[in-house]
From TrEMBL, chain B:
Family the entry assigns: Belongs to the binding-protein-dependent transport system permease family.
Originating species: Geomicrobium sediminis
Membrane topology: Multi-pass membrane protein
Protein name stated in the entry: D-methionine transport system permease protein
Segments passing through the bilayer: 20-43, 55-79, 85-105, 149-171, 191-214
Amino acid sequence: MMEWGLFVIELQNVTKKFGNHTAIQNVSLTVHQGEIHGLIGASGAGKSTMLRVMNLLEIPDSGSVYVGERELTTRSKRELREARKRIGMIFQHFNLVLNKTVEQNVAVSLQLAQVPKHQRIDRVRECLRFVGLEDQMDKYPAQLSGGQKQRVAIARALANEPEVLLCDEPTSSLDPHTTSEILTVIRDIHERLGVTVIIVSHEMNVIKSICQRVTVMDQGTIYETVQIESSGIPRSDRSPERFIKELKNDA
Amino acid sequence: MPDILLRYQAEIWQAIGETFIMVGVSILAAILVGLPVGTLLYLCRKGNLLENRFVFSSLNLLVNIIRSFPFLLLVVFLIPFTRLIMGTAIGTAAATVPLSIIAFAHYSRLVEQSLLEIPKGVIDAAVSMGASVKEVVFKFLLVESRSGLVVGLTMSTISFISYSTIMGVVGGGGVGDFAIRYGYQQFQTDLMLYVIVIMVILVQMIQFIGMTIARKIDKR
């Protein structure tokens, strides 16, 4: 049994509605420091909304959100912006600025945090090295593959040394091989940098491969939170022999 | 060079100069007023960062009203206003008033449209990184929409040339006015045709330059 440190994120009785539709209803959840926490459920179960509430990308209609010692829901706009800089986030569609180079995409998050210019470039390099894209600094996102784009997004999210990384369907637009690649990077961030990770996914294998606790959502509420033994990231083989084998096995 | 163009050389150059002033001021108005107004229209729209129904509806209505005037009527309608701020309603300087007004209305719509094409996710990413509204606009929205903004400004500029010819009615001068007074009204059809050719070349050049820049800065 692992010992959990201080909680990092806590939602208390959070409700979020979009018009007449209640996305999450009176949800309370604690994410412990240093864990990889999964959120899974059918589409429309409210898992993405729950994630987006954690950095107040969606402002809850009621309830409170704590990150570390800070209550985000009562913060001023300026304080909230400061708090967000300590919470990294990546998305299903990467959401890079397509008119900025890889380097500029990572640098912008440092710029927002008022990191002096001469320190920026080193930090950008460091982050890109971490995700293995140091040699692609001058490329534009359009010149990269999906997996590479997601790695740039990860580097961008890491730039300000966040305590928490929120991952919204990070592998859902990637093929199985690239999915393994990205999951490996996320696990590295967790292991080497000690960052708490929260992953939303509708893919069971993604959740099972790296999560330590998983919250199952149903119709805007938490069905259950379970502790699991992560199964490890499947090694993915893209050789033609493998495809043939799998085709025959499934038949 | 045809004789008739040589004969009217001085007048033609002056007319071209007047057109440049009128179109130049229009472009300035488009950038200085149209760009912020278009951005505000976008930001205040429902579901966006500065959602504000009152500001959105007011600006939206204003832009719609200006754009629904047939331009000649707008010019006439604005005569008292033009006189108020320029001291006169006649001449090239006075002509820049109604031109600036149509210019900002015209361009703000195109700005709004370019911004609407940016995937919402980019804004999510910006906000999640702790960007303020100002930073979202300058470091994300305008960067991502820059080629659309240039294409829009190119289209607007070409419309401004067309609008500026109408300003001949109030003594605004310009190439269009020259073509009508010296070409059409004095039965020198060939002169009118030459001026039209000059205008076609001018528009082609603007279109080419605008599109080239837009293509160069578009990395999407």
